[in-house]
Amino acid sequence: MRHYRRLPWEQLRDLCRIDGSHSTLAISADILIIGCAIAGAILWLPWWCYPAVLVVLGSRQQGLIVLMHEAAHGKLFRNRRWNDFTGEVILAWPLFISMFSYRANHCAHHRHMNTELDPDWVRYLTPEADERQNWTYSRTQAQVLWPLLKDLLGFGTLSQIKRVIRLAKPRNHDPRRNSPEADRAAELRFGRYPAAAVWVFRLALAITLTVTHAWLAFLLYWVVPALTMLKMCTRLRLLAGHFAVFGGEGIRTTLSSPFEKFLLAPHNIGYHVEHHLYPAVYFSRLPELHSELVARGDYDGSLPFRLTHGYRGLIADWSRTAEAQRATQQDVRKMANSQV
Ligand SMILES: [Zn+2]
Q1: From the CA of 275, how far away is ligand 1's center (Å)?
Q2: Which of 26, 173, 249, 322 is the most buried (most CB within 10 A)?
Q3: Chain-centroid distance, C-alpha 251
Q4: What's the gap in Å between 280 CA and the centre of ligand 1?
Q5: pLDDT of 1-54, one tens digit each?
Q6: Within a domain: residue 1?
Q7: What's the CA-to-centroid distance between 193 and ligand 1, angstroms?
Q8: Ligand 1 center to residue 184 CA distance, Å?
Q9: Which domain holds residue 60?
Q10: How far is the CA of 211 from the centre of ligand 1 (A)?
Q11: Quick check: is 271 in a domain?
Q12: Looking at the domain assignment, is residue 229 inside a domain?
């Protein structure tokens, strides 16, 4: 990034150190909360607590996905095989996704951020992208909140399932490189387990659910949260990081309260400016890195970094961005009219 002054190497090396025991604790905590929430819902809680349980479960599923993101960067464990096994089998497969496919997408996203080679940018912001209007946010607060509410209520489930199936193949992460050869190239570069392995995993899951008569519980406490709360959290996370930031050309860090962190921004995923500047920094050290960047004045406005406080601030920020965009468009029209 132009005019950006990098941190000293010694300081960075310390921030990049992987703490495997912290990673284990983070994964275990998310799984434990999921287990407790499901057990509580089945054994003790009245049926009307189900929406609250669903919110907790979806938020922890996002926690697991954020940790899968760390594994895709190779930053969960120092041992690469264990890192990849955990990312793929423990964190990705239970949610019917692949860390290896995600890694192919995510490396291109980091390398070509906010350009036509960035798969996320292409997927959501090109003129032919589905739902483009929901990602540009030149809109009112109600219009900003509506797509999030629709996610939470489970609208668009069929298209979500289709998207998950499509994105299992690395080539479909980038619509411009979707020849079958792209899968092979991605496998060689980013790794992949044999296709048979994932089917053995799914078969074992199906047998376990059948033997334990747990299909309904699986649907209610795993599939439904993934198609509602997790879907909303994913949209919010993507929007917060890159979209509606200076017309789609910047990055945003969203600082949040402990409650917001638990529900919406687990494992420091809100520190998105810091993550993009230094993707090798270990996720638990991102707040330290953030303090360093603030102290250096990196958020003083000379760089395309935006700092937003809280998720209410984020919604307001999107609307302000929208107002700024509308104002700019009006200025352009006024200038054009005055020149006629
Ligand atoms: Zn990343």
Answers
A1: 6
A2: 173
A3: 14
A4: 9
A5: 556 778 888 889 999 999 999 999 999 999 999 999 999 999 999 999 999 999
A6: no
A7: 21
A8: 23
A9: 9-339
A10: 39
A11: yes
A12: yes
